[in-house]
């Protein structure tokens, strides 16, 4: 059972072994994760470090960044983590992020673009244009800048993973969030998927590019284990699955398990997107219980379908 560390960070113990991920599965890998000083991104860096990777934490909160380094090093080994203060909208900051990462670890094998400002979450008619400009700067500009810094080295070595942590890129139902947040996510999703096509097949490049969709990540009243080790108690396994497919928020630690699994299978996911629930299904992750995550048939869309997907957002001339 993972040991709980005393910290002001909003975290719970993390242990990926119960779903078949080995402690050294990302050994010798180096990951940069933007927007990783809280919630989803914090879960990502802790999970990657648990799986044996070195991690570069990127964000604006220096106090949180320093504490995350302390916690990750305590959970794993000294020298596992590095924090670099970075505003991904600024090219100079991103170049400094790359310089510090290469100086400490010599390379970067995994890039996870996750940075976004959750406050940019308003409706179309109720938001200033400046909110959209900033959303595009963080998601679009930030994603492009980091790709240009880190992907050339991956292609040269024929080894790497580029992941974008998106949310939605069609429209935003009220239960998910506002239009501005979704629009910002859409531009980075498009850039990431275009990158996958530009670099070519994984078998030729050794670089896998995909998007992962977290869903409902956060803390709350939960009747399920925080991690599959059951340390926080389990719900009745005979209870019917919740109508929406999960019971309460998904802890960041659980969501991050899906990312690590996806990174390990990046070759199969290249040019695709996967939701955290699909990742849970694929790894047979018992969250919230074996029957609670709805299983569905899925297929990979063709490039033509992906190109036209925004034209297929409604019934058109249908009744």
Q: What labels describe this entry?
A:
319 residues; 10 helices; globular; Rossmann fold; alpha/beta
Describe the protein's architecture and organization.
With 319 residues, the chain is of the alpha/beta class. Helices cover 39% and strands 11% of the residues. The chain has one domain: Rossmann fold, CATH 3.40.50. The chain has helices spanning 39-50, 62-75, 91-105, 129-157, 179-199, 202-205, 252-264, 266-269, 276-283, 303-307, and strands at residues 30-33, 54-59, 81-85, 110-113, 160-165, 207-213, 272-275. It has a 7-stranded parallel β-sheet, sandwiched between helices. The protein is globular. The protein starts with 29 loop residues before the first strand and ends in a 12-residue tail after the last helix. Residues 221-246 and 288-292 have low confidence and may be disordered.
Radius of gyration: 19 Å
Count of β-strands = 7
Q: Briefly, what CATH class?
A: Alpha Beta
Count of DSSP-assigned helices = 10
Envelope shape:
globular
> How much β-strand is present in the residues?
5-15%
Order of helices and strands: EHEHEHEHEHHEHHEHH
Task: Name the CATH homologous superfamily.
Answer: NAD(P)-binding Rossmann-like Domain
Mean pLDDT reading: 84
Taking strands numbered 1, 2, ... along the chain, how are they ordered across the largest sheet? 3-2-1-4-5-6-7
Class per helix and strand makeup: alpha/beta
* Number of structural domains: 1
Ranges where pLDDT stays below 50 over 5 or more residues in a row are 221-246, 288-292
Which CATH architecture? 3-Layer(aba) Sandwich
Report the end-to-end length measured between terminal Cα atoms: 56 Å
């Amino acid at each position: 059972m993972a040991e709980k560390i005393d910290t002001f960070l909003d975290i719970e113990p993390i242990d990926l072994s119960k779903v078949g991920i080995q402690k050294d599965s990302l050994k010798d890998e180096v990951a940069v994760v933007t927007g990783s000083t809280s919630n989803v991104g914090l879960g990502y860096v802790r999970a990657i470090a648990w799986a044996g990777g070195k991690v570069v934490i990127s964000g604006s909160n220096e106090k949180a960044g320093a504490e995350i380094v302390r916690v990750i090093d305590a959970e794993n080994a000294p020298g596992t983590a590095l924090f670099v203060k970075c505003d991904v909208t600024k090219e100079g900051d991103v170049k400094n992020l790359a310089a510090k990462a290469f100086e400490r670890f010599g390379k970067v094998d995994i890039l996870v673009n996750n940075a976004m400002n959750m406050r940019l979450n308003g409706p179309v008619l109720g938001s200033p244009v400046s909110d959209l400009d900033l959303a595009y700067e963080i998601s679009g500009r930030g994603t492009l800048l980091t790709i240009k810094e880190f992907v050339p080295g991956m292609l040269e070595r024929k080894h790497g993973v580029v992941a974008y942590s998106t949310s939605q890129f069609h429209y935003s139902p009220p239960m998910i969030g506002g239009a501005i947040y979704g629009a910002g996510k859409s531009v980075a999703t498009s850039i990431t998927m275009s990158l996958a096509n530009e670099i070519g097949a994984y078998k030729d490049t050794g670089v896998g590019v995909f998007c992962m969709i977290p869903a409902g990540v956060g803390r709350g009243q939960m009747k399920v284990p925080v991690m599959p080790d059951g340390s926080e108690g389990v719900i009745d396994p005979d209870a019917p699955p919740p109508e929406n497919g999960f019971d309460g928020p998904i802890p960041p630690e659980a969501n991050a398990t899906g990312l690590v699994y996806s990174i390990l299978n990046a070759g199969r996911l290249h040019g695709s997107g996967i939701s955290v629930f699909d990742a849970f299904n694929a790894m047979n992750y018992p969250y919230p219980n074996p029957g609670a995550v709805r299983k569905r048939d899925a297929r990979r869309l063709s490039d033509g379908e992906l190109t036209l997907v925004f034209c297929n957002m409604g019934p058109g001339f249908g009744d």
